[in-house]
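hey so u asked for the seq, here:
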Amino acid sequence: MYAGESVDLNLGWLSQSRASGDPCAEVTLQSAQRLMEGNILTIDSTSSGESRLDLSLLGIPLRTVKLSVRSDYRLLSGGECIGVALHMRGVLVVGLAEMRDDNGQWVCPAALAGLQPGDEIEAFNGVEVESAVAFLKMLAENGGNKANLVVRRGRKRMEMVVEPMMDATTNQPRLGMWVRDSTAGVGTLTYIDPVNRTYGALGHSINDPDTGKVLRVKDGWVVQAHVLDIVRGQSGVPGELQGEFSSAPQPLGDIQENCDFGIFGNYEGQLDEAGKSIPIGTQASVETGKASILTTLDDGGVKEYECVIQRVTRQGVAQTKSMVVQITDPELLERTGGIVQGMSGSPILQNGRIIGAVTHVFINDPTRGYGVFIEWMLEQSQNLQQNAS
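ran it, structure tokens below
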């Protein structure tokens, strides 16, 4: 836990016998009042350091728990609308199609070779595939000859041999598939880490719209963007923030990682710390009740809107569905209907701390959606620095 956080732990029928080590926290025990209640241990961290808690049952020592309190860690809160441009590694097969051969039969050369939607083609005849344009050029230069492909499917890499079919109309080789090498859209910046100049955004991965596959990053950029219009959400039909990239946009940062917890990279814009620096709150400090989110709906910039955390799921390992958030702010409900596409990544604040980010909307109830703990996102951006060093 971090200095300044307060945590309540239910010990059941265990009790605390003593605390030893650095005086980094104030520990108080509230004994159970009724049979089905457990003893509640309240830990109020005051400063960084380590301590030990000795737990006992009926005076018999059973367990020693190590308590570690880290120094207060602060981020720059986001909420700004950003444009995202991502280029993937190789080309992604997004669909297959049959063609009529010289005998009048419908065939698909790509399918005959074993290719499937979601496959990534990394190399063509031993040459790395840089883009969809480069892939089509290599295919044209190869003509109707068989070609050796290096294909990634999930975590597996495999080699395939494909034999193109010549198009009778254009006399160009065809494989009977569609490919994609990039994507673009708008989302919301969650935070900037001023210590290592990294950022986190979106709170969820960027997936291919046709295959649902998480796109592997070759390179990419985040830039400033503007909200042009709002499609209000309603039950069964998700809403959307419709935006565009700023004219002649200057990159705010690169994209190094695209994963279940968002996109992450090195921040290259100016650091404006005035009024934005805020301590993080780990999941131990997150509670049901009042909270707020930061998001952008127009050129008026980032604004704070009220919400309620309805459910908190304690997680021992990183997972995306950490909490359920319901929008209660009258203005936000009037303008958007709740959570809409493009708001993903909006920071969630509670008790003066940044505790997470909005990730997904409930399709049948746009006032509600999921949020992810900030610590899971922060792990990803801090890993960037560790991998670079």
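The chain has four helices and 30 strands. Helices lie at 109-113, 132-142, 330-336, 374-388.
lmk if thats what u needed
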